[in-house]
Design a protein that fits this description.
The chain is built from 21 helices and 13 strands. The strands form 4 sheets. A 4-stranded antiparallel β-sheet has the order 1-2-4-3. The chain has a 4-stranded parallel β-sheet with strand order 6-5-10-11, sandwiched between helices. Among the domains are: 87 residues, Arginyl tRNA synthetase N-terminal domain (Gyrase A, domain 2, 2-Layer Sandwich), CATH 3.30.1360.70; 87 residues, no CATH class. The protein has 577 residues and is α/β, with parallel strands linked by helices. The structure holds arginine. Arginine binds next to helix 12 and strand 10.
Length: 577
């Protein structure tokens, strides 16, 4: 079963094409803005009529006549609205039928993509020289939600954790590692705080010219493939990845070692990229560096803006690796490559994508998309930092989330056994951090604020988790009853809730297309609101038995919808809270 919107778009689009004798038309169906306008409205009539010099109301009329010849059972009636919209009223019996089918087969709530494709999602991608910090939170969480949605839609998804594991810093780090660990030989301990390890190494590098010289030499050794240096580097990378994996586990993020697409993977391709750019005549030299100038990129004063691909000392750059990675993605027949990366890298990706296309490293059959996100700000409106101005380690932030949630749960529910309070706190704390991020439009900066994200009111994880647990507790009160079909939609609150449930599919379609998980968050929040209205206005356990069963079935389907939605966001709901 296709989503409601998808289905309406296709039948109305076809009727429009017939009426205008054209190949295809965009019906532009949206959910109606006011109840009087029906459940959906087709807005495409206006623009399509204008394009053809027709009066919109005439076209609307023709479309309605043609649809009425064999009106699908889903539609109860159609009306012309305003200057030429078509208002669509859905039939109650079809809503009941579809909802009942979804109770019996919950996977039907989310229709698969019509044309599944192969998608690569580059996300999280921390730099392994340092520990993961708050700057990695958004990309990791948003990327993981997108990946879950794409997979649920039936696409083949290749996760790509493009970790920064190569470059001059690693020479410094392994030199320091030899020195520091040589003395105490307890490597995991020495690296247990990567942040201070990095700081100390940097200090040594800055203070001691002999150390700095050894560090520089070790980079050369590393790059020339010296076995000892490589294995020291591997040890460091392995340890650093372990830090990342602990964070992924705490966050319930699906990335594993198998998903690594490290920068070092492309080392051998970089010189080839330069040679190939040379062959295409795209390469230019500027101040000894190798660059590509494309006419569409210029600086503030109109001066041409280069993409530098090789430094004057022969070193390659971030951009060279990204070009090599695009070429591999294209060779792998990936059709859509998403880069969930900070908005501040927007120019980098525009340039890299344009150069990749100009050089033929990728064709039009590969869609390259920068899924950018804004910065996480503190309450003071500046990038989020500790009080002393340091970057906040992600592992510590997540611990704090759990502790704050634990205090909250204890306050609300002091009699619950401690282990249970801990479990709830973990789910609520981590869920709150993830949801706070996912529910904001990803493209803007957002303010990280503990008290709003942990509130039980408003568009928050605690509110949704609580709504879910509450429905589950209602269902536990009526275990012996069968409730697998929806028979009554007599109250408007019942109908509104049921229709909303059937709209999960089109929301997921939109997230697949736009990669905006906040659309799903808004939907779940509205769904919970409609459930509360239903709960207040429609007695569940007290009414006639057939009505009770239908309402229990609606509760069950609401819970199912919430669960599927939350799980796609990477949040597992709790049965009890
Ligand atoms: N490691 C980079 C950073 O920390 C992000 C990499 C994003 N992915 C990419 N293909 N460039 O900024």
């Amino acid at each position: 079963m296709a989503s409601l919107k998808h289905y309406l778009n296709s039948i109305i689009g076809e009727a429009m094409a017939e009426a205008t004798q054209s190949e295809s038309c965009n019906a532009n169906v949206i959910t109606s803005s006011k109840p009087g306008f029906g459940d959906y409205q087709a807005n495409g009539i206006m623009s399509e009529a204008k394009r053809r010099g027709m009066k919109p109301r005439d076209l609307a009329e023709q479309v309605i006549i043609s649809l009425k010849q064999s009106l699908p059972s889903l539609i109860d009636r159609l009306e012309i609205g305003g200057p030429g919209f078509i208002n669509i009223f859905l039939s109650d019996s079809e809503i009941k039928k579809r909802a009942t089918r979804a109770i019996q087969e919950p996977t039907l709530l989310i229709p698969p993509a019509e044309v599944p494709i192969k998608v690569a999602v580059d996300y999280s991608s921390p730099n392994l020289a340092k520990e993961m910090h708050v700057g990695h939170l958004r990309g990791t969480i948003i990327g993981d939600a997108i990946v879950r949605v794409l997979e649920r839609r039936g696409h083949t998804v290749i996760r790509q954790n493009h970790v920064g594991d190569w470059g001059t810093q690693f020479g410094m780090l392994i030199t320091y590692m030899e020195e520091a660990v040589g003395a105490d030989s307890d490597l995991p301990n020495a690296l247990s705080d990567l942040e201070s390890f990095y700081r100390d190494a940097k200090q040594r590098f800055d203070d001691d010219p002999a150390f700095a010289e050894r560090a520089r030499l070790s980079v050369v050794k590393l790059q020339s493939g010296d076995k000892d240096y490589l294995s020291a580097w591997e040890i460091f990378i392995d340890e650093s990845l372990r830090h990342c994996e602990a964070v992924y586990e705490a966050l319930d993020v699906t990335l594993t070692r198998n998903d690594l697409d490290a920068e070092s993977r492309y080392n051998n391709d970089l010189s080839v990229i330069i040679e190939d750019l040379q062959k295409t005549d795209l390469l230019a030299e500027s101040k000894g560096a190798k660059c590509v100038f494309l006419p569409e990129f210029s600086g503030k004063d109109g001066e041409p803006l280069p993409l530098i691909v090789q430094k004057s000392d022969g070193g390659y750059l971030y951009s060279t690796t990204d070009l090599a990675a695009i070429r591999l993605r294209h060779k792998m027949k990936i059709q859509r490559a998403l880069y969930v990366v900070d908005a501040r890298q927007s120019l980098h990706f525009q340039q890299v994508f344009a150069v990749a296309r100009a050089a033929g490293f990728s064709g039009q059959d590969l869609s390259l998309e920068h899924i950018s996100y804004g910065t996480m700000m503190g309450k003071d409106g500046r990038p989020f930092r500790t009080r002393s101005g340091d970057t906040v380690k992600l592992a510590e932030l997540l611990e704090e989330a759990k502790q704050r949630a634990y205090d909250l749960v204890t306050e609300k529910n002091p009699t619950l056994p401690d282990s249970q309070r801990r479990d709830i706190a973990e789910r609520v704390g981590i869920g709150a951090v993830k949801y706070a991020d996912l529910s904001k439009s990803r493209t803007s900066d957002y303010i990280f604020d503990w008290s709003t994200m942990l509130s039980f009111d408003g568009n928050t994880a605690p509110y949704l988790l609580y709504a879910y647990a509450r429905i589950k507790s209602i269902l536990r009160k009526a275990p012996e009853r069968s409730y697998d079909s929806i028979q009554s939609l007599s109250k408007p609150e019942e109908r509104a809730l049921c229709l909303k449930i059937l709209q999960l599919g089109e929301i997921i379609e939109a997230v697949d297309r736009d990669c905006m998980p906040n659309q799903l968050c808004n939907y779940l929040y509205e769904l919970s609101g409609l459930f509360m209205k239903f709960y207040e206005n429609c007695p569940i356990l007290k009414g006639e038995s057939s009505q009770t069963e239908s309402r229990l079935a609606l509760c069950r389907l609401t819970a199912e919808t919430l669960q599927q939605g939350l799980e796609l966001l990477g949040i597992t709901p709790l049965e009890q809270m």
